[in-house]
Amino acid sequence: MKTLIFLIIILSLVSCKKVNTNKSPNDKLGTNPFQKDSISNNKKYSTKFCVKNKKLWANSFLGKPAPLFTVEGWVSDKPNFKNKFILIDFWGTHCPQCKRAIPELNKISKKYKNKLIVVGIATTTKNRIKAMKSPVIEYYSAYDTHGTLKHRYGVRGIPHVVIIAPDKTVVWEGYPFLGNDKLTVEKVGKIINQ
Q1: Residue 178's domain spans which residues?
Q2: How many domains does the chain fold into?
Q3: Which among 86, 108, 131, 191 could disulfide-bond with 164, CB atoms 3.0 to 4.6 Å apart, if both were Cys?
Q4: Does residue 84 form part of some domain?
Q5: Overall average pLDDT of the 49-67 stretch
Q6: CATH (domain of 168)
């Protein structure tokens, strides 16, 4: 009888083990750019180029570690994030302001390609993104129809951009056309050259 009770307790403990439902196929050690073990330097990056207390249509992660990066799939090739700044643009094919941001993001991606990875993430299908002919996206592009990463950031309005330093700290966030804190090629240069 004691053995039976012991087995029941052990089985209940094993079956109650917490399962991490936020894992993606690229969460193996060293493959996800947001795992601690993939961080290669100890430099601290400043958030001074981002206006504080501005209107956000997302949760603020400024000066904090970025949420775990996951996407459903890639429209483009998958980038190598190691030792790079990462600019994430949450956008949609139906959004005129999102499309307006694409040419500026193309310029940013081209100018800073050695220090910065630009990734556009849409909550639509790969085919819908590929069907969009104009404007042409010249940076990395991913899709996430479940909005997993969008929900982690609490994004409630698009476009929403986040810049993450190589130490995985968010150093800029917001609406890219906000009057007193527009995201420009020059501003990105200041952020990544600090």
Answers
A1: 45-192
A2: 1
A3: 86
A4: yes
A5: 91
A6: 3.40.30.10
Tell me the β-bridge partners of 140: 119
Q: Model-level pTM greater than 0.85?
A: no
Strand 85-91 and strand 116-122: the pairing is parallel
Instruction: Provide the 3-class DSSP secondary structure of residue 189.
Output: helix
Q: What is the mean pLDDT of residues 173-177?
A: 95
Q: What is the pLDDT of residues 60-110, one digit of tens each?
A: 999 999 999 999 999 999 999 999 999 999 999 999 999 999 999 999 999
Q: Which long-range contacts (CB under 8 A, 24 or more apart) does 133-140 make?
A: 134/99, 135/99, 135/102, 135/103, 135/106, 136/102, 136/106, 137/76, 137/102, 137/105, 137/106, 138/106, 138/109, 138/110, 139/76, 139/105, 139/106, 139/109, 140/74, 140/76, 140/77, 140/78, 140/79
Name the least confident of 21-25, 38-42, 142-146: 21-25
Residue 3 included in any domain:
no
